């Protein structure tokens, strides 16, 4: 078992990574149950694929499931209201722990509900998509989307425990696996160049479901995230913002495609990372060979790397208008996560939005 920790004083918690953890869920979750019961929030697809296994793994602890529709559209006011009402109807108390059992959508939504019900109760993450295992289950960012933009309403609310069982990925489809892979690549590109070289060599076998490789990559990405979150929990020190590499561009692409299945979050991040590298090349910050290497690797895994791959027009003004809703905005300026090369991301406050518009106008 790999045990990692997010060091946040009283809000510190462990992240356990082990194959078969779900089958032994009671060992780790029985202490969170009240009257032998745990409320589990999941989506229809995850519950159909893995719910029985979790219920068995909980042994004598009874799961009280709240099952929501799958997909990004569930990160909405309507589903949040429904979830909060269900939690209250089940009599959730402040000291209770809700179990978020699903991908990033369920984690972000159930985490946000946990942050606001009774002015805050506990929660545990059992991430079931690769994206949630390497990224969204750790760090306490919870949110819903609103018409103005992605993740614009939410809270920082840390889980008490994260249980990662890579074997649950056996039922995840290949496109979703690739989307999660994009966030692993992001962690390598931020400040772990050796991990990127490792991914270039092992990525294809990892995406084929090779368990040892999945475990290694999940642990590496989560270790990187845990370190950065511990240094800058609320993204105020210019450190956590690095985790947004590819996201300023990526969130604009998600907005343009209506947060739909047309473009998954991880796919938007892949295309956004390529934009961040190419923009850094244009600013003479990053060697063009690094940008080409990154694009080649992402494209080789089948991820979109160009606006044309997504079917989006190169309309700089439109895309920058989406970016203006970014939570990192400060006094009308947007920090951009740029790079000096693979493993050398940094936050740049000096970017003019006109420059970004012109850059995007030339992306095909
Ligand atoms: N809070 C954070 O720090 C953070 C970080 C990254 C992404 N996110 C958010 O996460 C969301 C994306 O998460 P996601 O990619 O996991 O999407 P998701 O939650 O929609 O899951 C993807 C799809 O896979 C299915 N699925 C999940 N696990 C499965 C399994 N084991 N077997 C079969 N099907 C399974 C789900 O039902 C869903 O249809 C976005 O909203 C993004 O903004 C948040
Ligand atoms: O945890 C973080 O911090 C991240 O930025 C991780 C991102 O992968 C994730 O998509 C996050 O939800 C984006 O945050 P946002 O604040 O830009 O909405
Ligand atoms: Zn992300």
Automatic annotation (TrEMBL):
Residue ranges of domain 3-dehydroquinate synthase N-terminal in the record: 66-178
Catalysed transformations (reactions): 7-phospho-2-dehydro-3-deoxy-D-arabino-heptonate = 3-dehydroquinate + phosphate
Residues binding NAD(+), per UniProt: 104-108, 128-129, 141, 150
A GO cellular component entry from the record: cytoplasm
Pathway connected to this protein: Metabolic intermediate biosynthesis; chorismate biosynthesis; chorismate from D-erythrose 4-phosphate and phosphoenolpyruvate: step 2/7
SUPFAM superfamilies: Dehydroquinate synthase-like
GO biological process: amino acid biosynthetic process; aromatic amino acid family biosynthetic process; chorismate biosynthetic process
Pfam families: DHQ_synthase, DHQS_C
Top-rank EC class of the record's enzyme: lyase
UniProt cofactor(s): NAD(+); Co(2+); Zn(2+)
Keywords: Amino-acid biosynthesis, Aromatic amino acid biosynthesis, Cobalt, Cytoplasm, Lyase, Metal-binding, NAD, Nucleotide-binding, Zinc
GO MF term (any one): 3-dehydroquinate synthase activity
Places the protein is found: Cytoplasm
Lyase in keyword set: yes
Domain 3-dehydroquinate synthase C-terminal: 180-328
Chief place of localization: cytoplasm
Keyword Acyltransferase listed: no
Function: Catalyzes the conversion of 3-deoxy-D-arabino-heptulosonate 7-phosphate (DAHP) to dehydroquinate (DHQ).
Family note: Belongs to the sugar phosphate cyclases superfamily. Dehydroquinate synthase family.
Descriptive protein name: 3-dehydroquinate synthase
Organism of derivation: Allosphingosinicella humi
Gene name as annotated: aroB
